[in-house]
Amino acid sequence: MATLVWLAAYSHLTDFADMIVAGLQLSRDTRLGEAVHFFSYDTPKVLLLLVGIVFVMGIVQTFFAPERTRALLSGRRLGIGNVLAATLGIVTPFCSCSAVPLFIGFLSAGVPLGVTFSFLISAPMVSEVALVLLFGMFGWQVAALYLTMGLLVAIVSGLVIGRLGMERYLEEWVQQMQAGKGAAHPDDSMHWNERFAAGRDHVRQIVGKVWLYVLLGIALGAVIHGYVPEDFMASFMGRDAWWAVPAAVLLGVPMYSNAAGIIPVVQALIGKGAALGTVLAFMMAVIALSAPEMIILRKALKPPLIATFAGVVATGILVVGYVFNMLF
Fold it and tell me: Which domain holds residue 220?
């Protein structure tokens, strides 16, 4: 029944947005009318996708408990572990801050430092939410290339950090946990009713935390879509401005959102003439290098390691931005 309601609602998004605009006696030919239509269409669309995907992934995660994930990653060779950790990050619908507790759990289980960073980067940046929304808005080519480049950034960044041997920059309590705790084995005795309940709980936990950021992101996207002059956006994030990609990354770091909240902004910027690579670099910086994430990480990592993490990932994001600008 819930699935049928979800499908019915998702199939009438345009009708709903048209009804809102008509009810407010606005015209889509005006800036305000177009902004209201954008907000009325994208808000339920993103929230419906978010609820559906997070519910499914909440069930999936009952088969991949943190203890099992730690067991999979512990003791792996560095390169294989990085690939596995980055791939597991795709099926965890975490924002950057939500991924930090599991990141710390990996460290405490003795998972190599570089491998844990591959997960921390991949989980928010290459989540299934980001891929679904990018596919819906820009097509499979953009979604596939984003998946490939995002995984490469996560894998290579983890490899680089691992090769630097920066374990001494973990806080002492983390080092003590690494030295004294192994990975446990999960309990596979859950019934399907319990798994569905876990999915519902996951929706309450994740959507309950991010819905406001979704609304704020879509509202900002609506304002950009309806009011920001196209020439202004093109001059700042245009393909011809070589400095636009690093400027977009610097602009994105102080912000905080997840993929569901920032992708509507990406769509609005693209509609205003901004280069795809520049806007995706901005998005990656927002969801993978957020200031709140750095604050939480400070509980487990010393400043030199946090700075190295930010610098390596930012370099990877710059490469992604320039590659997309060359190809699209």
Answer: 2-170+195-327
In a domain, 189, yes or no: no
What Rg do the C-alpha atoms of the chain give, in angstroms? 20
Give the three-class secondary structure for 238: coil
Question: Is pLDDT larger for residue 34 or for residue 97?
Answer: 34
Residue 282 included in any domain: yes
Averaging pLDDT over each range in 111-115, 116-120, 318-322, which range is the top one? 318-322
> Is-contact 72 89, C-beta < 8 A?
no
User: How far is Cα 307 from Cα 287, in angstroms, rounded to an integer?
Assistant: 17
Residue 288 lies in a domain: yes
Name the β-bridge partners of 284: none
Give the Cα separation of 263 and 259 in Å (integer).
Answer: 6
Provide the number of structural domains found in the chain: 1
Is residue 211 assigned to a domain? yes
DSSP strands (E only) in the chain? none
What are the beta bridge partners of residue 301? 170
- pLDDT by residue (tens digit) across 292-308? 677 767 777 888 988 99
What does the alpha-carbon distance between residue 288 and residue 151 come to, in Å, rounded to a whole number? Answer: 12
Q: Does the pLDDT value for residue 96 go beyond 70?
A: no
What's the CA gap between 294 and 212, in Å, rounded?
21
What token pair was written down for 104? 């710390």
DSSP letter, residue 63: S
Cα-Cα-Cα-Cα torsion 196, 201, 202, 207, nearest 10 degrees, comes to 130
CA torsion through residues 97, 101, 102, 106, sign: positive
CA distance 205 to 95: 12
Would you mind telling me the total number of residues written for the chain in this entry? 328
% of the chain exceeding 70 in pLDDT: 73
With both helix axes pointing from N to C terminus, report the angle between 78-90 and 66-73 in degrees, rounded to the nearest 10.
Answer: 150
Q: If phi over 0 gives left and psi between -120 and 50 gives alpha, with beta otherwise, what is residue 110?
A: left
How far apart, in whole angstroms, are the C-alpha atoms of residue 293 and residue 319? 22
Task: Give the span between the Cα atoms of 289 and 105, in whole angstroms.
Answer: 20
**Which residue, chain included where needed, has tokens 């509609």?**
271
